[in-house]
Amino acid sequence: MRPKTTLAIVSDIHYASAAEQARGNDYELRGIANPVLRAVVRLYRNFIWQRDPLHQNYLLDRFLAQAQGCQSAIANGDYSCNSAFIGVSDEAACASAKECLDRLRAKFGSHFRATFGDHELGKLSFFGGQGGMRLASWHQARSTLGLEPLWRLELGRYVLLGVVSSLIALPVFEPDTLPAERSEWERLREEHLAQLEWARTPKGLPSSALNPAQRNLLDLVLEQYLGRMPDEVADRVRERLSGFEQDLHFAWAGSLTVNKAHYYRIEGPRLLVEYDNFHRSGKHIHSVWRDPEDDFGEDMLAQHIAHDH
C-alpha cells in the first residue's frame, strides 16, 4: 500500500496587517462618488458579504489549528485585503501578505507552496474602478514575498503545478493593466506559458534518439543502481522499466572531466534518477532513485542539500 499524505489547501485568506486595518472597513466606499451606488455597496457589505473585511485574520488562525497533522500545504493567493487595489506595491498590503506567508511558512516549512492571487498583483475594484494590476506589485511579490510564478509538487501519483492565473488569463485582465505596462505583462505571460510547457515535459535527450551504443551505456548506468537493490526488488523494477524503455530521457549538466563537478538525471513515466556531484569540486556525490507514483513525492535531494550544505 502506498504511504498516505495529507494536504491542506487554503484560498483567499484576505489577511490584514495593522496598516491595512487602519484604513477602516469603509475603505472601499471612499472611492465611490455616486451616493446611490455607495449606499448599495454599504448594504451589500452589511448584510451579504463580509461586514468587517479588514478583520478576518481569525480565519487564518482557524485554518492553522485545523491543519494539525497535515504533511503539506498549499495557499492559493490573496494574502492581503488589497485595500489600495494595486497589489503588494502598496506597503500596507505587502505587510499583510508578508505576515500571512510568514505564519504559513513557519507552520509547514519546506512542505509549503504558495501561488499568486489577483490581490498580490492588484485589480480594479468592483465598484468605483479604482486601482488595477501593477508591475511594481509583480516585482515586490517576487522579491519581498518570495513567491514563485511556477512550482511543481509531486505527491505520490499526483503532480501539482502552481501557476499565475492572472498571467494565463491576461486577455481577460487586460483592462486592469496600465497602457504603458501592457507590453511587459504580455512578455511575462509568454514567458510563463513557455515555462509551464517546459515543466510538463521530461528533461533531456529521449532514449528513442540514442544509437545502440549510447542506449547500452544508459542501460549500464541504470544497472549500477539496480545492482544495489535486493534481487527480488531489482527484478520487479527491470520488468516495469521494460514497459517504457523508449520513454526515458537523459540530461547532463557540468563537466565531462573525471573529478569535476557534474550532474545527470534519468526520467521516465515511473522513474526519476538524479546524480549530483557538484559539491566539494566534484568529490561529494548524492544520488536518488525514485518511483514518483510509489513514494512520498518529496524532493529528497533538494531537501538534503538545503539542510545539510
Structure description:
By secondary structure, the chain is α+β, with helices and mostly antiparallel strands. It contains 12 helices and 10 strands. It has helices at 18-21, 35-47, 58-66, 91-108, 118-121, 135-143, 165-168, 170-173, 182-199, 212-226, 231-241, 300-308; strands at residues 7-10, 72-75, 112-114, 151-155, 158-162, 205-206, 249-254, 262-268, 271-279, 284-290. The strands form 3 sheets. The chain has a 5-stranded antiparallel β-sheet with strand order 6-7-8-9-10, with no helix packed on it. The chain has a 3-stranded parallel β-sheet with strand order 1-2-3, with helices on one face. The radius of gyration is 24 Å and the shape is elongated. The mean pLDDT is 87.
Structure summary:
This protein has 309 residues and is an alpha+beta fold. It is 38% helix and 17% strand.
Task: Choose one word for the global shape.
Answer: elongated
Alpha-beta classification: alpha+beta
Content of β-strand = 15-25%
Q: How many individual helices? A: 12
Q: Taking all residues together, what is the mean pLDDT?
A: 87
Number of strands: 10
First and last CA, distance:
34 Å
Order of helices and strands: EHHHEHEHHEEHHHEHHEEEEH
Taking all Cα atoms into account, the compactness measure Rg is: 24 Å
Q: Largest sheet, order of strands side by side?
A: 6-7-8-9-10
> How would you sum up the major sheet?
5 strands, antiparallel
Q: Extract low-pLDDT stretches.
A: none
Compute the number of structural domains.
2
Helical fraction = 25-40%
